[in-house]
Amino acid sequence: MTQDENTTPAQPCEDEQSLSEILQIRRDKLSKLADEGRDPFAVTKYRRTAYSADISEGFDTLENSVVSVAGRVMAKRGMGKAIFVDIADAKGTIQLYYRLNDAGEQTFEDVRKLDIGDIIGATGYVFKTRTGEISVHCDTAALLAKSLRPLPEKYHGLTDKELKYRQRYVDLIMNAQTRRTFEIRTAFIKHVRAFLDARGYMEVDTPVLNTISGGATARPFITRHNTLGIDMYMRIATELHLKRLIVGGIERVYEIGRIFRNEGMDTKHNPEFTTVELYEAYTDYNGMMQLFEELLSSAAMNILGEYSLTWQGSEINLAPGWKRMTMADAVLEHTGVDFMSLGSAEEAVRAAGSLCVKAREGAEATWGGLLYECFDACVESKLIQPVFITDYPVEVSPLAKKITSDPRLTERFELFICGNEMGNAFSELNDPIDQMERFKRQAELRNSGDDEAGMMDEDYVNALEYGLPPTGGLGIGLDRCVMMLTDNSSIRDVILFPTMKPLGV
Prior knowledge:
The protein has helices at about 15-35, 50-55, 60, 100-105, 105-110, 160-165, 170-175, 175-200, 240-245, 285-305, 325-335, 345-355, 365-380, 430-445, 460-465, 480-485; strands at about 65-80, 80-90, 90-100, 120-130, 135-140, 140-145, 200-205, 210, 220-225, 230-235, 250-260, 270-280, 310, 315, 325, 385-390, 400-405, 405-410, 410-415, 420-425, 470-475. It is α+β, with helices and mostly antiparallel strands. The chain has an eight-stranded mixed sheet with strand order 7-11-12-21-20-19-16-15, with helices on both faces. Strands 1-2-3-5-4 form a five-stranded mixed β-barrel. Strands 8-10-9 form a three-stranded antiparallel sheet, with no helix packed on it. Strand 4 (about 120-130) and strand 5 form a beta hairpin. It starts with 15 loop residues before the first helix and ends in a 19-residue tail after the last helix.
């Protein structure tokens, strides 16, 4: 019996030589099949009548019925004149049972030569073994695709993190929890759509390529449009186009889309990620707070069956009734520094310095900017249970409406759970004159070396001049929500194909 004809799950290769031997053995098997006129890659389709879960869940109805199944060989055990084969399909696993006297010599020999990872189809009747395991007693075995590479050892799966991300296809084959993560991701996105659709929102698509970068404070990716002969920017947000649609009379609008930011990579950030941005006329950031709370709490109940979950070792309660507090109050509570009592930028610099915090490189040291930096450095990581942090400084909120009683602040909030920012919302600025001045300020900062500052968008100001009704807007990081729902600590675990540095670079 050759190394690759073992009846146990494939073992990890000890070195490149043993891997090469296995690869050659499998290719030799494929060549022999082709010489016999049985090339598995020539098969175009297979008629499957039942999935593994259909058989397991419907055994009382299907017992003794003939079914056709298909899937990947995950394990194989030989017992004299009987062979047991476990195959995995999209809904789980099922055991196939082959007996020499029933299957015949050719089929039995074909099954014996199967490798772990091969994809097969089989027909037989549903029964229970002596040990009570629901199985299919088969008399056929159609090889539908030959696996030319060995899978990782079954009982440990693919555990190398970097390899999991680079070879997600192997990760999905071996790790049921990975598949569950992406099933939850899809369920969550479906929930978001259904939630918004039921409230009269209209889903739209807006450009990924733009002539300017706007809608957020972030460094963009730059590309070249050869026909137009201009540089273009991959979008860092969908905000400005969506608010143009509010001007146009689409009073409730949203987009689920990919966003691209040319920034650092860590457990919370990937250069491309997915958001939903939504805008509603005639409401404000308080309306967005209520909507966000209802969306996330209902997602937990609908997908997980309860409001409570564990994330990064903390028990999180998503039952409605989340805490709300201003950014200044949060800084005061966690650091003892009362920014609302400070009257100048100089006082803010001294207060921030006492916390070892200073203005972001390239940015001016202002009262509002330092309040935000102190929150970011000293408070954010301590916010475990859901909390809406409100009233952000105007310096870091160029698209939000000012608070009338204190124009240093804006009607803006972010939701934090387990130290992660989950979403961002404003009462949208609809004064075109104020907006033009803020764009000018952002342009000045950009010209001074702040490559995350926004650009002037004269067409957006032009749109505002036609009249934007009072509007609430909300942007949600879908990847981080999925991280929470699946108890993953890295954004790479919830993106099927995260950005990776090429091997050897």
